[in-house]
Amino acid sequence: MQKHSLSFRIRSNTVDRDPPRVIEIDASPEEIERLKQDGYLVRERLVQGELLEELRVAADAVEADALAHSKPGEGKGFGGLFIRSLIDKHPAFLETLFRFEPCLSVARAVLGPQVQIHATVLRVAYPGLQNQDVEWHFHQRVVPDPEPAWFHRPVVVDNLIYLDDLTEASGPLVVLPGTHLVNQDLPSGDFSDKPGQVVVTCPAGSCITSHSSLWHRALSPHPNHQQKRRLLILGYSPVWQKQIDRPSAIHREGGLTDSLLPNADRETRELLGLEGYY
């Protein structure tokens, strides 16, 4: 993996408070440019070996706990199973995802050094379960029309980490490159093919990083496919943006992130959404 460095300085009145921050980016300059232009980047087998198996075991444990209280497809929205706030639910997710540099460094490359964990989600798609297609959509749907002069579109960098092979049979991701650069309506309930769409498949452990405004959808597993598909979603946003998942450390609700507070440095507090804004 080719890496490169970026140095940022936060413009403020006190240089001593905000010295330059050097970020070691776990991607090449060409990959970052491709992410900027296309709105998504595929890095195959980013997670491998023991770490991949550890995340699978953790996902199965969190899934089993959720299934003790509900069934897949019972919640609102798309089919399958969605579980939020993973870093507060299992130590493997806290230890791995909280400072997962291959994703964190890329988020800082395109958002700047002051980022927070926006969301940590597990999605499980099951064989034989109905209505698991995901319609065309983008995230952060809060853009007014007409757009005010000083409005800035909120951005989240989403990382889709597939714990199982993403194939035509398991239900691939479909993206429309470049749509993160446009601002137009996308009606709900649209599952149709579109000119220029890309059907993304990749082996287990791969990561698809995308802009939150990129148009995308997901297909259901093929009826003959017999394995579930486990997906981790790790999102980052600027520290001054509202999070979807509010870590327990903010509200002291007894989640695993509570343990980070006693010795939290500045970076830890930023990632939790507790520092980095003025």
Largest sheet: 6 strands, antiparallel
Question: How many strand segments?
Answer: 12
The percent range for helix content is 10-25%
**What's the Cα radius of gyration?**
19 Å
Q: How many DSSP H or I helices?
A: 6
Second-tier CATH architecture:
Sandwich
Shape: globular
CATH C-level class is Mainly Beta
Distance between the termini: 36 Å
Mean pLDDT: 92
Main structural class? alpha+beta
**Relative strand content:** 15-25%
Q: How is the CATH topology named?
A: Jelly Rolls
Order of helices and strands: EEHEHEHHEEEEEEEEHH
Q: How many discrete structural domains?
A: 1
Strand order of the largest sheet: 3-10-7-12-5-4
Describe the structure.
With 278 residues, the chain is α+β, with helices and mostly antiparallel strands. The protein has a single domain (23-272), classed as q2cbj1_9rhob like domain (Jelly Rolls). Helix content is 21%, strand content 22%. It is built from six helices and twelve strands. It has helices at residues 29-38, 49-67, 91-97, 101-111, 248-251, 266-272, and strands at 4-8, 21-25, 40-43, 81-83, 115-125, 134-137, 157-162, 173-175, 198-200, 207-211, 216-218, 229-238. The protein has a six-stranded antiparallel beta sheet with strand order 3-10-7-12-5-4. Strands 6-11-8-9 form a four-stranded antiparallel beta sheet, with no helix packed on it. It has a two-stranded antiparallel ribbon with strand order 1-2. Helix 2 (49-67) packs across helix 3. The longest helix is centred in the first third of the chain and has 19 residues, at 49-67. The radius of gyration is 19 Å and the shape is globular. 37% of the residues are buried. The mean pLDDT is 92.
